[in-house]
Amino acid sequence: MEKAYKKLGYFFLLMIPLIFLGFYKSYFVQFPNFEENITTFIHLHALISSIWILLLIVQPLLIANKKHQLHRKLGKLSYVVFPLLILSFVPQIIRIINSDAPLFLFFPLADSVLLILFYALAMFNKRNTAKHMRYIIGTATVFLGPTLGRIGPNILELSPGVSQNIQYGLIYVILISLIFLDKKNKKNYRPYIFILTIWTLHQIIFNLIF
Questions:
Q1: In this structure, are residues 109 and 97 in contact, taking their beta carbons and an 8 Å threshold?
Q2: Between 7 and 98, whose confidence is greater?
Q3: Count of structural domains, the chain
Q4: pLDDT number for residue 1
């Protein structure tokens, strides 16, 4: 693993408190007596998403500690977990279709498209460790979306629109910082340029729709 990314797994650990904050009011605070609107499908989505985030944390730690064989085995597990993760969006999509606010389809559909795109590129480049790792980081940025998008309204009492655009700004800061880090170390930062471009399109579409 590149020296600058040896502590990547520890940075991914920061996602755990962020996710807890983001989903505290709408999910965690209800444990163990969840309201009726928290369906079995929502629990499954939470479980599968948690497994995926654990993989994001564990995989770079295994590489940093030279546990390459175990890293490859867990990588094969992602071939099962990832399709289940995408399928877990389907009940939410159906619920929104049958609601009075179909425009909110944008969020699960856009998240699914970004996850599929970045994961497919990561797997296509699995023998190119540098590109593979950067596109996996791209999948992690997708999880920041719903997390940061909830912290704004639920914790900071910001309007959803303002919160969403702040979320984009934070993702841009992360990606631009990684670009500068790679430029400094003379590494291939083009995957981040692509990921940044996709997120920019995401923001443009969001502001056109909402």
A1: no
A2: 98
A3: 1
A4: 66
